[in-house]
Structure formats: structure tokens, C-alpha cells
Amino acid sequence: MLPGIPLFPGVADYPHWAARLDDLGVRHTAQALLPAAAAGAPAAGFKVLDGLWFRGRGLAWQRVDRAYVARWRQGRAAAAEALADRLDAALAADAMCLRRVVLYELAVLLQDKPGPERARTAISLGLAAGEADILAAALGAALPLGGLDREAAEGVQSAWEHGRLRRATALAARLPAAPADPLLAELLAAIAGAAREADALLAEAARRADGGDDAAAARAYLRAARLAADDERALAGLLRTTPDTPAPEVRAEWEGDALRVRWTDWTGWTDDTAPVDHTDLGFHVVRHLADHPEESVRLGSGHGRAGILDTGAVTGTRVRYSVLPIGDGRIAGLPRTSTPLLVAPEVTDLEVTSGRSGVTGTWRAPDTAAAVRVVRLGPRGPADTEADTETETDADTELPCRRDGFEDPATAPGPRAYLIGCDYRAPDGTIVSSPGRWAGAVMEEWPQPVTTLTVLAAGPLGDAVRLDWPAPARGEVRIVPWDDDPPAPGTDLTGELPHLPSPLITDPAESITVAPGAALRIVAVGVLGRHAVAGPSLLVEALPEIGGLRAERLPDDEIRVVLDWPPSAATLMVGREQDGRSDERPLTRSAYLRAGLRLPATGSACAVTVRAVSTPGADLVLGGAARIELPPQVRVDYRLLKPGWRGGARRTVVVRAVLPGSTGPAAPDAAGEPPAAPGCPDFLLVGRPAVPPLHPGQGTAELRLPGARLTSGEPVHIELDLRDRARPYLLRGFLLGAHSADARLDHPTPDTLVVR
């Protein structure tokens, strides 16, 4: 006969227990614990009236105890692992707890079934047939769970065991005042007695506090808080009556926009109201308003070295942090409390630096700040800085600033001290200011940068430069070479000063030589003490020399140009000047090596220039173009005339030189001599039997006229007797001498050059 149906599970944390059953997809605890072979067949059966038993091998039954749970949990899912932890803890406290839990769960599942169906339903749930009839009969005698508040029944034990007396009292009020379940009746009586004791302690604490005995009141509040951990009156009273703790014990420091609460852990707790193992204390942190401890927020548990990060403090309020020692889940002694703290975070990442234009400050302001303020301090300076007491002004000066920084354009040398703080809007609408952070900087004297820098070519060969600059009012000027892109004028080069190259010159009277093919970037740097400022820069380039330049005229009105290509040049510019016109074209190294250089030209005087291409943006280019001039081209023509049809082998040679710019014979000078016209070559007439001569050495020189005889521009007639020459005899003219390359010979028709 079943003596009675449990009206509550009787184990702590049963709501979490039931949640794990839902995760496993089972309806009651016995189904979850079925052996693996029978898990899919609930009809295999279990017994529960004398503890929870499962059928073993043959006719044997095995009891569910801690060892069974340890075997059952192996290889299970996470939900089963969590359930196994709770089962093991419950069995360690009460070996028969599963009887009560499973009977309660079966009663809940069967209470709504009609009487005849209860036994069959119990068997379908896995209960052995004999016990199913007994359970059905017990439920038939009365429905013990009818109208029961299951939330209260399943949560009251957990609230009681975890010290939440006020919660347990509220749940107990929702349960029958005189339950048939003796264990539940015993629990409700214990809860009622503890509630009366806690109320008495609160009343005693209030009397003690009204009488000015805060120490006694704190002890009474502590005992009440141990009985009712969820009683806010007990906690508020404990916080209000506990003496202030020195700041090193509990401290709160800003960590960005949040507060990190740290404390010194302690183990030697001696208060006789807290009989716990003091060697294994935990600590719980509470934030509360400095003047209203009843307005508190529980932040969590931890240890003092790592502390607790509080991100929820309301800006503009004054708060305190209390650290409560916790043992066995209850307050183990009086709290230790921080000094009051204004929740007004300061700026972070604060940097204040001085420069040539003044002092600059940057920071990151908290998102909750309504405004940021900057005050330049007077001569007294902050108490914790090493700034000199002599500053630029005699009073504190509030400076305009942005949300993330400020600029103070003060230029007089000397120390500066600044206070940077934040304003916040409190819950009551008032503006609350943070204490602020001190920062200092020292304004140093800076050099006056060079304003202008001029450059001129110098030296007898034009391969040097001279620079000129105005003397600055402060500092010295260093003219230094610069390999990379030059800094913009006014750039701070203080950090580069130790690495600057040696000055090229120190006096404008000195000159700087630039090697051909090299480019020199020059920067004027102003220096004073440890500071340096960039001034203007110049680029001077010395073009490579063009050597071996030669030019000669070719037939068909062309000039061939030959030169020694400079190794440092990829492209040259080739210019031509003739007949009052000029042009220029680029010539690449590859094109020159492949095809040489030929230029079109008439017979008039011509000049050819070749130069390297300068760097774009060069301020001064040294060196020029190589130049070669070709004189005007002399044109010489000749004819062979046969003196009559009886002339035979006699011939009259007519040779005439046409000088550039002449239209006829030149007038003789005052002495009667023809004018000197240098540049006319000698004329040579060569003959050879049968084959025409191709150069002056191929045949017999029949006639040679010096250039001087041709400079008059009048035809020269010479009679030749060629009767003793072998026939046919072929003649051809050639130009000889130093000026032959600059002259052109026009030949008559070939048939007139044959003597037959």
C-alpha cells in the first residue's frame, strides 16, 4: 500500500532538472535513466515504490544509485551530462530522492487520466505492472495534486536551500497550509520559522541603528541577511551600518568607459555570526548609491585580483562598491566598502605635445560625456606635475576645444599645464563635472624657417652652383642633400635632425660642384637647439657630356651624325638649325644603336646640337648641348667639250664652282685678286681605258685644279690632248682636299665622258 503521493519533488534546482529532461526528449526521470538496451522500449519496466530500480539480467533488478549514474553518463550528450551532475548531487544528499521525484512526475502525468486508464498509462510509461496498480489505487483514493501550484511546489525547495527566504516564503504561501506530504509540511514550517526569525532580526537591527549603535545593527542585519539572502532590507541595512573601509581594501578604477572594481581577498574572517569554512570564501560585489544603500545592484562574484567590470553605472551619480564574503552560498561576514566615487569617466588616450605652432592635445572622450572642457592653468600649475611655476598667463584660462582635442597657439617658450575634464548630465538634469586629468608640455624655442632659396650657375666651366638665402631671425641654416622626395616647407624635422647629412655649404659665398650626369636635391633646414624645420628645396641637375660628335654630308641632301652615347642617358634631344629654321626631336639609345642618326639638310650652312633630357621640375640645369656646325656646301660641275667635229681626241674641260649665295663671278678685291672663299676643294679628272674609274686611284690623273682657282666662281677652261690614250677612254671627276666632304660634284652625262 502506498502511504502517500509526494506533493513536491523535494530536491533543489528541480526546474533546471526538468529542463534537462525536455532537452533529452523524455517525460520523466526514470525514462531518461533506462539502460541503453532498453532506452527505446519503456515497457521493459522499472520499480519506484522502494527506490528507483531497473530490470537487469534475468529476473534480477538493479538499483539506481550514484554508481549507476556514473556508468549511465558515459558517452552521453551534453544535456545528459548536465542531468547527471544534478542526479549525483541529489543522490549524495538523499539516496532515496529518486523515489520521491519519479513518483511526483508520474502523479503529474496521471492525474488528468480517468481512473480505469491510470494503471495502463503508468505501464505504458514503463512502471512495473504490480506497482502501476498500487499507484493507480493511491491516485484513485484522492487526487493529491489537483489544483496544486506546480511552479511553487517545484521551486520552493531550491529557494530554501539557496537561502532565498523571501522567495521561499512567497512560494510557500501558494501551497496548501497543511499538506498531506509530511516532508512538505516540515519544509513549510521551517520556512515560516526562519521568516519570523529574520523579521525579528530586522526589527532589532532597526532599533540598534536608531539608537546609534551601528556595529550591533550591522551584526543583526548580517544574521538576517544570512537567513534571507534575497532580503533587500537586510542588505541595505548592512551596507548602511557597516563602517567605511579604507580605500586600499576596495577600490574602483576607470578602465575605458567602465569601472574595474578590485579588492584584497581575505580568509581570516572572525565574525561569530558566520560559522563557515573561511579558507574557501568567495566574494560578491554590490554597487549602490553613496547616500542610498537601498538602491543597489548586484554585479556578480569574483576574486579581488581580477575584480569585476562594471559597465552599468549611471553617469552623474555618486556610488560605492561593497564586497561581501560568501561562504556556502550565504554572506559570511561584514562587507568592505569603497569610498564614494563620482561616475564621471575621464578622457582616455590623452596626449599633449608641443610643436612649432603651439601645444596640441588629443584624446578619446567617453560616449556618455555631454561636453569636454580644457583649462590652461595659471602659474601655480597642478599639484602633481613638475611644471615650472612661471607660465604665460597669471590665471586659469578655459580654452576652446573639440570633442577629441584642442590647439593652444601660445608661442612664448616655457612650460604649460592643462586640465582636461568631462561634463555629464545627472539623472536629475544637473551638470556634473569629472575631476579631470592633468597633462603638461613645455614650449621650446623653434628656428625660423628659411623663406626663399635661390640658385645660380657658377664656376669657370659652369659645373657648380651658388645658393643664396636670407638670414633667419632665429637659428642657423643648413644646406643639406636630400635623397627622397623633399619635405614640404614648414615640416617639423626634429626627429630627423640626428640623421641629417652633413651640410654641403655653410656660407652663401661657397659653391657646390655637381658632377656631369648627376642630380642633386638640396633642402634648406632651419636648426635651433634640438628642433629643425624644413625650408624650400631645389633640384639641380648636371647633364651628361656628349662626346665624339661628328657630322658629314651625304648625297641626296642628308647629314650623318655620329656621337659617343653617354651611359647615364636613355634619351637625347637632337636639334637642327638651317635656313633660319630650327627643330628638335628625341632620339632613344636603342634607335641610335639600331639605325644611327641621319638628318635631312639642304646645301646651306647647318648646325646640329645634341643634349641629354633633363629631369622634369629641375630648378637649374647645368651643362649644355654639344654642337657641330657644317659650312655651306660648295657645288662643283664640269663638262668635256669636243672642239669641232675634227677635234679627234682633244677635249676642252670646263670646271666651275658655285659658291653658296653667289649668282655669278665674284668681284676682285682692291689688289685685283679674287676674294678668298675658303671651303672649295680641288678638282681631279681621272681617265682609264674601257672601264670608268670609281675612285681617284683607279686610273691616270689627267687634270688637277686647286680649289683656289675655282673660288672666283668663273668657269675654268683647260685643253686636254688624249690622242695617245687607248680607246675607248673613260673619264670621271673627283673632289679632293680638306673641304671635299662639304662640297658636291655634279657629273655630266656619261656619254660625254667617253673618248672614242
From TrEMBL:
Residues 385-397 have a biased composition (Acidic residues). The lineage of its organism: Bacteria, Bacillati, Actinomycetota, Actinomycetes, Kitasatosporales. Residues 379-412 are annotated as: Disordered. This is LigA protein.
